[in-house]
Amino acid sequence: MWRRDEPRVLYVAKRIRQGSRELDILEFLKKTEPRSQHVITLVESIQSLSETWLILPKLQPISTYSPCSSAAQALQFSRDLVEGLGHLHKHMIAHMDVKPANLAFDKAAQCLVLLDLDTAIMLEDENAEVVGYRGTEEWTAPELGDADADEDKEEVRFKPILADLWACGRVIDFFFGDEEEDHPLRPLTRRLAASPGGRPSMKECLKWIELHGKG
Q1: 23 within 8 A of 16, measured Cβ to Cβ
Q2: How many Cα atoms within 13 Å fall on the side-chain side of residue 27?
Q3: Residue 84 is inside which H or E element, if any?
Q4: From 92, 125, 152, 167, which residue has the greatest number of CB atoms within 10 Å?
Q5: DSSP letter, residue 65
Q6: pLDDT bracket for residue 207 (50, 70, 90)
Q7: 78-117 b/e (C-beta count within 10 Å ≥ 16 → b)
Q8: How would you label 30-39 residue by residue, b for 16+ Cβ within 10 Å and e otherwise?
Q9: d(CA 117, CA 104)
């Protein structure tokens, strides 16, 4: 029985898109130890006659907080994003749609959480390549090309892990305010915006934030 002094836990139901591997990925992550508090956790899945639904914790959209009100808050969100994305990459999962709309704030844990693994990909290794546009325009790495490209045009191969790195840098700039050129993590986001082979891993980014990101 729920007690008045206990916080209510709210949930949302999300229908799985046909062709998405979101359920497989969330079930896999649920079994990994240690888990990451910066990646959404599957509560359960429900199969209807024709559809599968995910039951997930209901969290507060990050749009409530971003662009951030202070450099300290932007730094915390940046660190949380890097840790969450790093957890996915450690397990050879590329998110492929990193953007503010796919981030939320867990008030109980006081941290940022990555949502929506609808277009996420499970890879054999970090150098695996794929074809086919994934993600949201303005938040996708340039090597993915144009979402509205001619269907007859040959699709370009790209590395999903490296594409995630570019998007991560773009979101960090958003946290600090896109027009702010001199924020504490700007040197890092410039490196993340470099050509694919020049982008630092999430592990390297986390080390950089700990050393230089004092807000």
Answers
A1: yes
A2: 8
A3: helix 71-90
A4: 167
A5: T
A6: very high
A7: bbbbbbbbbbbbeeebbbbbbbbebbbbbeeeebbbbbbb
A8: eeeeeebbbb
A9: 13
Q: Are 155 and 144 in contact (CB under 8 A)?
A: no
Confidence of residue 103 (pLDDT cuts 50, 70, 90): very high
Q: Rg (Cα) of the chain, in Å, rounded?
A: 18
CA 82-139-62 angle, to 5 degrees, is: 60
**Integer Cα distance of 167 and 190 in angstroms:** 12
**Helix (H, G, I), strand (E, B), or coil: what is residue 215?**
coil
Whether omega before 34 lies within 30 degrees of 0, making that bond cis, reads yes
Q: Give 2's contacts (C-beta < 8 A, 6+ positions apart).
A: 8
Among 128, 135, 122, 130, smallest CA distance to 156 is for 130
| The pLDDT of residue 26 is above 90 | yes
* 0.70 surpassed by pTM: yes
Please list, in sequence order, all residues whose beta carbon lies within 8 angstroms of the beta carbon of residue 131, skipping any fewer than 6 positions away. Answer: 155, 156, 157, 158
What is the C-alpha to C-alpha distance for residues 30 and 139, in angstroms, rounded to an integer? 27
Q: Which of 133, 127, 209 is nearest to 168 (CA)?
A: 209
Question: Residue 54: beta bridge partners?
Answer: 14, 45
